[in-house]
Design a protein that fits this description.
six-stranded mixed sheet, 6 strands
Length: 204
């Protein structure tokens, strides 16, 4: 029922990707079906602008629902996965294993609009996972970048220049699902701050 209400089937395989160019069929078709767009995160109760680390923490706090939203076959492996590259430290946001396809799935989170450099960072993490964590029995590692919004033309150029299989998806949450007129009716950050600073006048 949850999948019907969230129109999961309509979103399956909708994220723009370069999977077909870098993975042989039917592998590319299978991986494409993993990448939904957008990911519906309304159940997390997020509102307004959020920091990437807060988004990550909210995802982990609701990991069962997140696995259900990602789709069948996903198993959570780790967060902030640390890599030491010749004394340079890097941390991957989220790592999953797709148990049906037996492949690592690297997930990077960005709360803002997609930028071309995000694809380069994701490509870097996919290379690290392939080199250090992928087993002989595993299919090629793929990446999914989940960001707040994207320009599809920018994404297309970025993916065309990448030699690593990846997709770029977006997410939605409570505030973004509100109609424009209801968003405008909500107080902005300054108004909220003013309201919170308000105190009762002293009695005379």
């Amino acid at each position: 029922m949850n999948m019907i209400m969230n129109k999961t089937l309509e979103r399956t395989g909708e994220a723009p990707s370069n999977f077909e160019r870098h993975l042989a069929k039917p592998d590319s078709d299978l991986v494409q079906q993993m990448a939904m767009d957008p990911y519906a995160l309304e159940f997390m109760g997020l509102t307004g602008e959020i920091a990437e680390r807060d988004l990550e923490q909210a995802l982990i706090d609701r990991i069962v629902e997140i696995l259900r939203e990602l789709g069948p076959g996903f198993a959570f492996v780790g967060r902030q996965v640390h890599f030491d590259v010749d004394c340079d430290d890097f941390c991957l946001d989220l790592r999953f294993l797709h148990v049906e396809q037996l492949r690592c799935v690297v997930v990077e989170l960005k709360t803002g609009e997609f930028q071309p450099e995000f694809a380069g960072k994701l490509q870097f993490y996919i290379a690290l996972v392939d080199d250090k964590l992928r087993r002989a029995a595993h299919a090629p590692t793929v990446g999914i970048l989940i960001c707040g919004s994207r320009n599809d033309h920018t994404v297309r150029y970025a993916l065309n220049q990448s030699n690593t299989p990846m997709a770029v998806s977006t997410y939605t949450y409570t505030y973004e699902m509100l109609p424009p007129e209801e968003r405008q009716a909500l107080p902005d950050a300054d108004e909220l701050a003013t309201a919170l600073d308000w105190t009762e006048p002293e009695e005379r």
